[in-house]
UniProtKB/TrEMBL annotation:
Residues 59-119 form the RNA polymerase sigma-70 region domain. GO terms for biological process: DNA-templated transcription initiation. One of its GO terms (molecular function) is sigma factor activity. Pfam families: Sigma70_r2, Sigma70_r4_2. The keyword Phosphoprotein does not apply. Residues 1-37 are annotated as: Disordered. PANTHER family: RNA POLYMERASE ECF-TYPE SIGMA FACTO, RNA POLYMERASE SIGMA FACTOR SIGZ. It comes from the Bacteria. This is Sigma-70 family RNA polymerase sigma factor. The keyword Transcription regulation applies. Belongs to the sigma-70 factor family. ECF subfamily. It comes from Actinomadura barringtoniae.
Amino acid sequence: MIEAPASPASATSPTSATSPTSATSAASPGSAASPGSATLAGRLLADDETALAECQAEFGPALRRYLRRLVPADLVDDVVQAVLVELWRCRHRLDPEQPLRGWIFTIARRRAVDQLRARPPASLPLTQALVQALAQPGPDPAERVARAQDVRRALATLPDAQREALVLAYFGDLTQTEIAAAVGAPLGTVKARTARGLRRLGALLEA
């Protein structure tokens, strides 16, 4: 089990940790906080460290299932730890009237995005969606392996912005709107980067 951060000392909130008021669509907790969630939030606001451990016990299993859809398995525990640290550091910004689950899962998605953006393309699993987008030929296993290696090499050569858009879309399973929010770019710009990145990947693979 990942242990909750030990120090209850107040810390400044990270600049990236904006106060979320609702969960992402993949982790919708409902429109109001449950009594148990409100109690946990209140205890966090009161600097009760045991409440953080209870958050891990209550939300940890669902959080891990959610994160397995977003990041490689070896990163799941790292992201969970980052979520707990941020939850503790930002506890004084919690609203007990808002669903605590929504807050936690919003932090989790943001931290998953951070991990994906920092991950070398060669270490990312090739997703079926990207395979289909690039029209991978044939069912032959050896051909698929070779194609996957080619895609990773080509992905590493893309301009940073295009590579980031593709990684977040196809490896992070983010919508274009979510990518725009994550990278701080207009939606139209993100769509253009994704389209250009796919075209460039296709051209590199055909060369």
